[in-house]
Design goal:
2 strands; homodimer; about 150 residues; Arc Repressor Mutant, subunit A; mainly alpha; DNA-binding
Chain lengths: ~150, ~150
DNA sequence: CTTCTTTAGTTCGATGTCTTACTATTTAGT
DNA sequence: ACTAAATAGTAAGACATCGAACTAAAGAAG
């Protein structure tokens, strides 16, 4: 885009391209077709604890419940999670990691950490400096309803 | 994600969320179902000139040719572009904007500029400062090519 | 307790994107 | 010139995502 763009416009443009490149880079590196959203859910369950409901996960990732249903069905089909009924609320389910799911997450984390570490060294990326401003932008987009 | 994440990992995570929020924000604001990739192509043709080939557009957006074929077919069906055979290369086509396509792009630009401008004012976004480092990150990720 | 509303999750159809495979045309190598 | 490799575009199949419509269950109002 040109220098005449409002800076925020150009920024979001750049962000879109980076997201696409990063997602492709991750997914092409997986030997078994693990998708980024699959990894994201596994990672979330390891870090923040499993036993969450699908709805909680959908809200955490800002995805619709329908999308999370799809992701969880695929993770379950791969044997990476179990879905159990919630004893206290018959409408709800609870998502639990299997040992295979934990192991697959560790594998993906290890690879990704190595890849990103190498990338950050080859190029002079100042990720620390960008993190705070991007979080501010995310927050702004997140709670600022659209006008009109 | 937690503070134990490598900064680049957390950064890409944040970027993924922002991309999703920004795309949804744009698309929900369109009255006619115009998608972000459609707008991106119209905008590109206005700014850099039409008469490009589908392959050139695919490379410009780092998408596969198949994806660009799909986008162009939808833009043509909406009457926003015309596809003409290339006189010098019988394999190729050339993409031209229609008056309707130009008008629709102007409409979307006006809305988006206003929306982003308002957003940038309400929140304290330093888009200028982030642009250069993000471009460096994009360039670093970009070394991986081989597309259709 | 009965009814209305809200919440949890699924299903369905549409769209964007990718990979793989294909056709047609151009270019390069010999 | 002939043939092989590269390039332009398309088609088919897979998957992620969304919105709308649906079912089931819990909560609120009376």
């Amino acid at each position: 885009m040109s220098t005449q763009d409002p800076a925020l416009f150009a920024l979001l443009n750049e962000i879109g391209i980076i997201e696409q490149l990063a997602r492709n880079r991750f997914e092409r590196a997986q030997p078994d077709g693990l998708r980024l959203p699959h990894f994201a859910v596994l990672n979330h369950l390891v870090r923040l604890g499993d036993g969450k409901t699908p709805g909680q996960l959908a809200r955490a990732f800002q995805l619709t419940k329908a999308t999370m249903t799809n992701t969880l069905q695929r993770l379950e089909a791969r044997g990476f999670i179990r879905l159990e009924p919630d004893a206290e609320d018959a409408r709800a389910k609870r998502v639990f990691l299997t040992p295979e799911g934990r192991a697959r997450r560790e594998e993906a984390v290890a690879f990704t950490a190595a890849d990103l570490s190498a990338l950050a060294q080859r190029a002079d990326i100042h990720a620390d400096a960008m993190l705070a401003p991007l979080r501010a932008l995310r927050t702004a987009l997140d709670r600022d309803p659209r006008r009109g």
